[in-house]
């Protein structure tokens, strides 16, 4: 089906270079006749400086790298469209939030935070979820994360926090991990980080897919309507496929098997036409209700529980197109919290205020100068007109004879009028370096998070603390963290203390409130886009496996046939040979052969490992022999028989059988 092309897509045409231009030229357009041999004096003689093609080629190569982002260095991008459900004119004057007639083009970049550009995707980390809306009134960015809170309350602490989580300064170890002394030292001394640390220790930090995670603007922003009336707003992205995560042991193995796991997943889904969808929701707080909560709306370490202020869906984003060139688009895209349009404004959240400075500043370095908004991916779809000129890499030829305002020579153009108006917030105060007392409580919402978790989520959080603190060398740092856990919840503190061989800390009286929306149980269930490995061999009964496969694929699942060799088994084409495949990159396993595979250790391990990671397993035909050979300790989430298509599809939709006891399976 032909996709309708949006304004951004059409704008990029002017910058696209088709792949079919055959004649090679230099950057100056001179045809090249040989790019394999440098010019030399005699066939065995020295290379000659005069070879301008050689010099240009090498020089360009030497300069191919730009600084990676200081945080969020590793990312993957995609284009999309945002369709508003209904006009929101009572809340905001932003055109893209009042006009439902045409969708707004978007570009999204998902990222990890701590690791460098070449690090693995599936690390324990926050994920970035930055979206640029190319609106008719200019670019609007929601630079979000997949957690709704942040580690610090004041942006002045950001360099400290980032230095603590990044590899240690003396030996640059460890890469893309928080499991080391400097990170936990920061945490124990800066308890405002604890709520976010609870999220980081939860499975939210290891998402199954960028397509299956939420996004949060974190700060409270402001919507402003045409009469100048403001409403506080929090931005939420909600994935249509639900929020799902991987399991810690699994992610460690994925890092080796497929370091590009999340990036590949996004790319392949879009290529297949399984376009990821996210609903944009808002939490709205009328200005008079600003002080109705027992936390401060300006404190980015706090959520507004959904039970207090429900989410209102306002539109849907569909990611429908992969970039054509990673560097030109995904690497050069520049997001900024201060890229806002009329009808949207900031609040005094000190973290947001710092971000409003930081993003432009970092991009001036990363993208080499002030003209980076002219890079195609960063250009708004409407016209840019101002008196800003010059600087590195100016691409435009301004014909105007003036670059100042006011002027009479150019008839006063361009003129500032009918533009962005800042919300008229009354501000008064004494200059002071101090936080508001309303920012003081660092524990209540960490407790709320713990209380809201299902039993399996709690177990994973405890295990994560033990893994992380198990990598900390200095005992006083571990003790410091455990002391704080004693303020969050006695169950959490005592289990972590016991695992670390430390005495239980003083335990606080904690509240029992919960916010069910924080748990990852009760997600929308679907098998669409789930990857299912079908293990086949020459003993596969295709009559048994084909109906199962068809049933799964008709519901949108992606099946891959894995066999001891490439080619075909019977008449079924093989997608991957067993030695190139690993269970950790699949959501579920179908054993469809036991005659050839039953005695193969690698096939047994495939099944056993999937079992260890709580995945659904089906055995059809002689596949029963393989599953029996794997000697699984129980059959929770394991289905046998030739007529199990629907039952198995439901099992795949469950995602994981967390109540399966895997404690005796060798990891
Ligand atoms: Fe960022 N952050 N950040 N951040 N952030 C950057 O900007 C910064 C924060 C987020 O895909 C940098 O262009 C400060 C919260 C995303 O290109 C930099 C503070 C949230 C991305 C920067 C924060 C984010 C960035 C690095 C505390 C979630 C990737 C490169 C005051 C709401 C965007 C760049 C992309 C990137 C600064 C905190 C999200 C250095 C100073 C909170 C998704 O400017």
UniProtKB/TrEMBL annotation:
Cross-referenced InterPro entries: Catalase, Catalase_AS, Catalase_clade2, Catalase_clade2_helical, Catalase_core, Catalase_haem_BS, Catalase_immune_responsive, Catalase_large_C
Keywords, comma-separated and alphabetical: Heme, Hydrogen peroxide, Iron, Metal-binding, Oxidoreductase, Peroxidase
Enzyme Commission designation: 1.11.1.6
Catalysed reaction equations from the record: 2 H2O2 = O2 + 2 H2O
A Pfam family assignment: Catalase
Record PANTHER family: CATALASE, CATALASE-B
EC top class, as a word: oxidoreductase
Physiological role: Decomposes hydrogen peroxide into water and oxygen; serves to protect cells from the toxic effects of hydrogen peroxide.
Molecular function GO terms recorded: catalase activity
Cofactor: heme
Membrane spanning stretches: none
Identification of the protein by name: Catalase
SMART domains hit by this protein: Catalase
UniProt-listed PROSITE patterns: CATALASE_1, CATALASE_2, CATALASE_3
Domain Catalase core: 25-413
UniProt family annotation: Belongs to the catalase family. HPII subfamily.
């Amino acid at each position: 089906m032909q996709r309708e092309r949006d304004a951004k897509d059409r704008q990029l045409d002017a910058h696209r270079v088709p792949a079919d231009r055959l004649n090679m030229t230099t950057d100056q357009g001179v045809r090249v006749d040989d790019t394999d041999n440098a010019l030399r004096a005699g066939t065995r003689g020295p290379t000659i400086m005069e070879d301008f093609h050689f010099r240009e080629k090498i020089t360009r190569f030497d300069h191919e790298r730009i600084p990676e982002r200081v945080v969020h260095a590793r990312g993957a991008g995609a284009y999309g469209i945002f369709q508003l459900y209904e006009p929101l004119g009572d809340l905001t004057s932003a055109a893209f939030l009042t006009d439902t007639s045409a969708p707004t083009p978007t570009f999204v970049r998902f990222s990890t935070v701590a690791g460098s550009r070449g690090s693995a995707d599936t690390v324990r980390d926050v994920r970035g979820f930055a979206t640029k809306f190319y609106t008719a009134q200019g670019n609007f960015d929601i630079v979000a994360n997949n957690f709704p809170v942040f580690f610090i309350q004041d942006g002045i602490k950001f360099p400290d926090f980032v230095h603590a989580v990044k590899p240690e300064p003396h030996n640059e170890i460890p890469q893309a991990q928080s499991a080391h002394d400097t990170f936990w030292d920061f945490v124990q001394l800066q308890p405002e980080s604890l709520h976010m640390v609870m999220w980081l220790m939860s499975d939210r930090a290891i998402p199954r897919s960028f397509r299956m995670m939420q996004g949060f603007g974190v700060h409270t922003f402001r919507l402003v309507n045409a009469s100048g009336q403001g409403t506080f707003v929090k931005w939420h992205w909600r994935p249509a496929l639900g929020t799902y995560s991987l399991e810690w042991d699994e992610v460690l193995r994925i890092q080796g098997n497929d370091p590009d796991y999340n990036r590949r997943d996004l790319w392949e889904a879009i290529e297949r036409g399984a376009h990821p969808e996210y609903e944009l929701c808002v939490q709205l707080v009328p200005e008079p209700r600003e002080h109705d909560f027992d936390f401060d709306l300006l404190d980015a370490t706090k959520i507004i529980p959904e039970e207090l202020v429900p989410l209102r869906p306002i539109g849907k984003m569909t990611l429908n197109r992969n970039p054509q060139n990673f560097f030109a688009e995904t690497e050069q895209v520049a997001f900024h919290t201060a890229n806002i349009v009329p009808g949207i404004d900031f609040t005094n959240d000190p973290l947001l205020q710092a971000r409003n400075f930081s993003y432009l500043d970092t991009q001036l370095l990363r993208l080499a100068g002030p003209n980076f908004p002219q890079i195609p991916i960063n250009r708004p779809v409407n016209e840019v007109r101002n008196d800003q000129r010059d600087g590195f890499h100016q691409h435009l030829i301004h014909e105007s004879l003036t670059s100042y305002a006011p002027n009479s020579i150019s008839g006063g153009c361009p003129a500032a009028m009918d533009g962005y108006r800042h919300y008229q917030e009354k501000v008064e105060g004494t200059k002071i370096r101090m936080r508001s007392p309303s920012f003081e409580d660092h524990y209540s919402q960490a407790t709320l998070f713990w209380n809201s978790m299902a039993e399996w989520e709690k177990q994973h959080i405890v295990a994560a603390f033990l893994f992380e603190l198990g990598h900390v060398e200095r005992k006083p740092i571990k003790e410091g963290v455990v002391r704080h856990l004693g303020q969050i919840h006695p169950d959490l503190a005592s289990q972590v203390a016991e695992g670390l061989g430390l005495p239980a800390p003083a335990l606080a009286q904690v509240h029992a409130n919960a916010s069910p929306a924080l748990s990852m149980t009760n997600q929308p269930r679907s098998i669409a886009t789930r990857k299912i490995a079908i293990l086949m061999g020459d003993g596969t009964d295709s009559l048994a496996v084909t109906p199962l496969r068809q049933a799964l694929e008709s519901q949108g699942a992606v099946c891959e046939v894995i066999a001891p060799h490439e080619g075909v088994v019977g008449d079924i084409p093989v997608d991957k040979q067993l030695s190139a495949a690993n269970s950790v990159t699949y959501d579920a396993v179908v054993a469809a052969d036991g005659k050839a595979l039953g005695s193969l250790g690698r096939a047994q391990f495939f099944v056993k490992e999937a079992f260890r990671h709580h995945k659904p397993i089906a055995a059809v035909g002689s596949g029963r022999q393989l599953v029996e050979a794997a000697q699984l300790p129980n059959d929770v989430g394991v289905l046998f028989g030739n007529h199990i298509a629907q039952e198995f599809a439901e099992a795949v939709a469950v995602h994981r059988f967390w109540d399966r006891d895997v404690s005796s399976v060798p990891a």
